[in-house]
Amino acid sequence: xxxxxxxxxxxxxxxxxxxxxxxxxxxxxxxxxxxxxxxxxxxxxxxxxxxxxxxxxxxxxxxxxxxxxxxxxxxxxxxxxxxxxxxxxxxxxxxxxxxxxxxxxxxxxxxxxxxxxxxxxxxxxxxxxxxxxxxxxxxxxxxxxxxxxxxxxxxxxxxxxxxxxxxxxxxxxxxxxxxxxxxxxxxxxxxxxxxxxxxxxxxxxxxxxxxxxxxxxxxxxxxxxxxxxxxxxxxxxxxxxxxxxxxxxxxxxxxxxxxxxxxxxxxxxxxxxxxxxxxxxxxxxxxxxxxxxxxxxxxxxxxxxxxxxxxxxxxxxxxxxxxxxxxxxxxxxxxxxxxxxxxxxxxxxxxxxx
Length: 354
Description:
The chain is of the alpha+beta class and 354 residues long.
């Protein structure tokens, strides 16, 4: 080894640090980004989750390795050596914890994003998982720094009780949100209608509230989780997204009901075939006569639709086509008619005075 290097250990220390940082940058630019580009071309999402979790971490780990190598060189003050060791411990465990949080969040999204998922992919679920990983990482850091955890846990227990009393409403919404997710009765992208009248698509379940996007106006409705958990809710997406809609029609008493039924079903079938939003597999439209009305024979047309929001287009198109077809076939949709019978009272004879 050259003499000037043995006499100046700080040169080796700087060399270790610089080489570590450069190695981390090279690993980030070449290794991680190349793997990320390859992962994007694969069908599986797991490799994307793996690569996304370690992005920018090689630079941190390379710098930490360089500093650790510099610490092995003689000539460092023991106090500085101890301080740097603690800092590196925090950095390494903290970075690994961050990677674990990213991976856990990605795994949650992958498992909950499937149709048969047992949990809903929401902000609340992600935050709870990341908070758990963060807590484990924090305790590992404290343990490696020789910090007593038992007194800290005791203090946290007493402080947690005081916080729980002060944040009763917040905790009520938090546990209501957890209950909503675990029940699997309300999921993101489900179409809900609350007993209070609000309705729309669920966009997210957070710690304090659930957000609903109205249809068709796309406004955002914020519902506290405790209110949602105690409300009567109609979920139009469960157990299946398909549903039946009803269109009520009345025809003249002079109509041939067999002909009316045939024409109506034919129009309904052609309407559903023309629209991608209509006619789920195995379902066909039906006509059901309901009652003898005041001026018409009333009946319902039952139409199957794929999901709740498809009904508006199908109803719109079906009414137009049915009206045109009835006009072609001479089927009359009568106006409401009332027959008034007027009593013909004779005029009273005039009163004469004597």
